[in-house]
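FORM 7B: Structural annotation worksheet

SECTION A. Query
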Amino acid sequence: MTSYRQVLAVPGMAPLLGVSLLARTAITADVMALTLFVVLGLELSYAAAGGVAAALTAGVALGGPLLGRMIDSRGLRLVLLVTVTAQVVFWLGVPVLPYGFLLVASFVAGLLMVPAQAVSRQAIAAMTTSEQRRAAFALEAVQGELSYIVGPAVVILGAATVSPDVVAWGVGAAILAGGVGIAVLNPPMHARDEAEAAAAERPPRRQWLSARMVAALTMAFGTTTLLSGVDLAIVATLREAGQVSWAAVVVVVFGVSSVIGGLVYGALTRPLPTWLLLALLGLVTIPAGLAHDWAWLCVAVVGSGLLTAPTLGSVADAVSRLAPPRARGEVTGLQSSAQSAGFALGSPLVGVAIDLSVPAGGFAAAGLAGLAAAGTGYVLSRRSRICAMRSGLTGRLPWSSQVGRSSARRRSPTAG
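SECTION B. Predicted structure
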């Protein structure tokens, strides 16, 4: 655990992780809060609730790179001021908006969501050394898993015991507190030794959107596609067994396993490649469909849980290393967008597989999606390395020829 003590000893790191955990927990719960408000507050269908959730998710996916680019060019505090204000207006208005306006407002709110996750990743990359970064991103992944365990559960409990209106205001208040806390901390977006690079002209997108970057983003997308699909497959399996009420227990076991896996992985001295972690995650997910009751399903998801946070942390580490300082905000925004798109696609993809087969087909579809993304990431990364090797050889040829010509001139009696 020495590596974690070193990370938490970095000035400003512990407060940043604490404040961003608050913001991310609220942001993780926003879809559930809107779903319960539409179903319980407006007394509309789950399909209508799904429309609001999809609008919010689409806004988040589109807004990530835009907000990241604004952070690169305008600074963190301006972006936080705009996004926090937008969230306060939206969540205060949720209980009084008719469905049509709520649909549009949800998209705008997603577009201007407080970028807590992207900011914490940028700050981690700026505040830690290369040796500390893997442990730091493991903590960030564990933070994400804790937010998924706590956020939706608190919202469901609040909607059941108080009201969906109050829950909506509570989510907005938590996002406000988290955003303001990050603004007060104002974490650095660039390391000290990156000051010159950060002040330089912004590199063109074609320069940093390389095959390795596309590979990392593809694996980010594949990981969340798998995770979103597993959530639905768990519910479908337990519904068939008549044990839907136990779904929360299975999800908690999954989340706790992920936290343990993330902490163990971050403490290892030799990391595994991201594509291999994702491939292993896909492989252990497929046989989880063999479980037919909640107890065995708790056992079956442990393997997937142990690999979840390590895979997410490895993806974040890879993206941060590939991102140039001047475009790091846009790059981390793209990563958030890729993960949001994966969450949006995973449920319908696995839902189709379940409808066409059995609940076990949902686990198979989720695992195969992860394997496909891992395979794509491996091929793109390998191709990038081969191209780099060839470019290196080609780049040395003119230098060698020039050395040869210079030597020839020195040996020539007519030289200078």
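SECTION C. Observations
Residues 393-416 have pLDDT under 50 and may be disordered. The CA atoms of residues 239 and 245 lie 9 Å apart.

SECTION D. Sign-off
Analyst initials: ____
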